[in-house]
Specification:
three-stranded antiparallel beta sheet; 5 helices; 3 strands
Length: 133
Amino acid sequence: MWLRIEPRLPKPVYQQVVDGIKESIAKGVLDQGDKLPSVRDLAAMMTLNPNTVAKAYRELEHERVIEVFRGRGTFVASPAEVPDRNERIEKMSDTMKQLLIEAHHLQMTEDDVWQLMQQVMNEWNTPSGGAKA
């Protein structure tokens, strides 16, 4: 399945659903217009509480990652208007600061962070068997 949830992680399960769907879109596993399972169906497939999936879907809808059409279903949204360069830099800078805070608390050196970033980027750019052809 394109979505993996690990209940033992400290990250809330609904956030894992949000992140997993966003990652699947970013990697091309899900494309614009693809229909997502209903809240109940995804909850059943992943053995999650439907309220957890509903919360994740609400968050994704709020972020305009998905669109919900009553009676038709939930779909991957069309890409939103791209924020201007300054907004993108500010958002990414905030995210990177959070990563550095976490790295500090994990007692990682600057070199550790750079090496890990390179490793993750290499893995990200390596084609996986799960992506659409």
